[in-house]
């Protein structure tokens, strides 16, 4: 894919200055002349195409704060994707997220800026693997993390996110379930429920690199450090953490720490998560000091402003799913959304 460089003109500057003012705490001023022409062009094309951009929390700030219409974790994006009136959805995340958006919006055009934006966790299991597990454990419900392909979702009974996994596993009312594909998330769920968990050995390459020893070393310098971790981290990390939760749960917990800052107690927070999420959360909560031993997700970073512009200009790369697979996968996602709505109500 060739990308044309765009000029930073006075017209572009005038058009994008209000956007930069909202993001200047996180995007260096010296970088803005590079980003601004793409931001202006993307936002104009969104209006022309009646398009909406969904961005995961792991997206870089120049996407997250300047062109994204909806931001959040996997569950938030899935639920908002089902509500949008746009004709076109551009999913700035990874491939399985775009497939999920397509499942809940079968009549809309769903695009990804880069087809190679994959996921180590999603790649750890196939639909054929799930069918073999069903043969080995007949009658046992299959609970599948949304970080999976449509093919895997199609072989599942219900999807979950890290934020609603425990709730949905217990709501099924089964004595044991097959939980796919993240081994560490499965262990975390098992620690929170009496339901027997049969786990797969998939891992997220971002979260599996953190260790409990990392946390211990940081706490030697500051025993008051507040440690926040995602349940995709290894068990020794979760054992040392003060809070374990989904991407959105982590953000909300930081908000609670920010409330402490408002009472003249300036907390220091250690976020065990992806680099850009740490940047985005830090920009939101100025009263909190952040320690960020982040790990980079190379797949998320395949999304860039030039690629988003190219996607809107050419309507590439469109996500398509075999209808027979899509119908079955959609049911698993819809069950997840139904459980989530019921919990809120």
Features:
345 residues; alpha/beta; Rossmann fold; 3 domains; four-stranded parallel sheet; 15 helices; globular
Structure commentary:
There is one protein chain. The protein has 345 residues and is an alpha/beta fold. The protein has three domains: 124 residues, NadA-like (Rossmann fold, 3-Layer(aba) Sandwich); 81 residues, NadA-like (Rossmann fold); 85 residues, Rossmann fold (3-Layer(aba) Sandwich). Helices cover 46% and strands 14% of the residues. It has a four-stranded parallel beta sheet, sandwiched between helices. A four-stranded parallel beta sheet has the order 6-5-7-8, with helices on both faces. Helix 2 runs parallel beside helix 14 and helix 4 runs parallel beside helix 5. The mean pLDDT is 92.
Produce a short descriptive summary.
This protein is an alpha/beta fold and about 350 residues long. It is built from 15 helices and twelve strands.
Number of strands: 12
Poorly predicted runs are none
Characterize the overall form. globular
What is the level-2 CATH architecture name of the largest domain?
A: 3-Layer(aba) Sandwich
CATH superfamily of the largest domain: NadA-like
Terminal CA distance: 46 Å
**Helix/strand order:** HHEHEHEHEHEHEHEHEHEHEHEHEHH
CATH class of the largest domain: Alpha Beta
If strands are numbered along the chain, what order do they take across the biggest sheet?
2-1-3-4
Supply the number of structural domains.
3
How much of the sequence is in beta strands? 5-15%
Topology, pairings included?
Elements: H1 10-23, H2 32-49, E1 51-56, H3 61-64, E2 70-72, H4 74-81, E3 88-92, H5 95-104, E4 109-111, H6 127-136, E5 142-145, H7 150-154, E6 158-160, H8 165-171, E7 176-180, H9 183-191, E8 196-199, H10 212-221, E9 226-229, H11 235-240, E10 243-244, H12 247-261, E11 268-272, H13 275-284, E12 289-291, H14 305-314, H15 323-344
Helix pairs in contact: 1-2, 2-14, 4-5
């Amino acid at each position: 894919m060739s990308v044309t460089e765009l000029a930073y003109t006075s017209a572009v500057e005038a058009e994008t200055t209000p956007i930069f003012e909202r993001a200047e705490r996180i995007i260096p001023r010296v970088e803005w002349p590079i980003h601004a022409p793409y931001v202006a062009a993307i936002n104009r094309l969104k209006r022309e195409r009646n398009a909406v951009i969904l961005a995961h929390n792991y997206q870089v700030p120049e996407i997250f704060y300047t062109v994204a219409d909806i931001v959040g974790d996997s569950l938030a994006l899935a639920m908002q994707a089902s509500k949008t009136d746009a004709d076109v959805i551009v999913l700035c995340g990874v491939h399985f997220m775009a497939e999920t958006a397509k499942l809940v919006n079968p009549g809309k055009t769903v695009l990804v800026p880069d087809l190679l934006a994959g996921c180590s966790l999603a790649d750890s299991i196939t639909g054929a693997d799930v069918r073999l597990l069903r043969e080995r454990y007949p009658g046992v419900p299959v609970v599948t993390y949304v970080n999976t392909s449509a093919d895997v979702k199609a072989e599942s009974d219900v999807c979950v996110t890290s934020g609603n996994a425990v709730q949905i596993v217990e709501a099924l009312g089964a004595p044991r379930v097959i939980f796919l594909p993240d081994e560490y998330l499965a262990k975390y769920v098992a620690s929170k429920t009496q339901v027997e968990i049969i786990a797969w050995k998939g891992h997220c390459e971002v979260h599996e690199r953190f260790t409990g020893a990392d946390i211990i070393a940081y706490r030697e310098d500051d025993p008051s450090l507040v440690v926040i971790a995602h349940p995709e981290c290894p068990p020794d990390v979760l054992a040392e953490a003060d809070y374990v939760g989904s991407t959105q749960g982590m953000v909300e917990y930081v908000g609670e720490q920010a409330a402490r800052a408002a009472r003249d107690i300036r907390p220091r927070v250690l976020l065990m998560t992806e680099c850009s999420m740490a940047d985005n959360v830090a920009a939101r909560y100025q009263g909190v000091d952040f320690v960020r031993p982040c790990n980079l997700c190379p797949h998320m970073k395949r999304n860039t402003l030039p690629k988003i512009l190219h996607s809107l200009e050419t309507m590439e790369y469109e996500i398509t799913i075999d209808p027979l697979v899509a119908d079955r996968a959609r049911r698993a996602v819809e069950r997840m959304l139904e459980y989530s709505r019921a919990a809120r109500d």
